[in-house]
Automatic annotation (TrEMBL):
<protein>
    <submittedName>
        <fullName>Isocitrate dehydrogenase</fullName>
    </submittedName>
</protein>
Length: 35
C-alpha cells in the first residue's frame, strides 16, 4: 500500500515536471520568436 502510494506520487510528480518543462520550452520558443 505504501509502496504503491509512493510510486503513484512519483508518477504524478514526473507528469507535472514534464508538463512544466514543456511549458518552459514552449515559452522560450515564443520569446525567441518575438525578439
Amino acid at each position: 500500500m505504501i509502496i504503491s502510494t509512493l510510486s503513484n506520487g512519483w508518477y504524478v510528480f514526473g507528469n507535472v515536471m514534464l508538463r512544466h518543462m514543456q511549458w518552459c520550452e514552449a515559452a522560450d520558443l515564443i520569446v525567441k520568436g518575438m525578439e
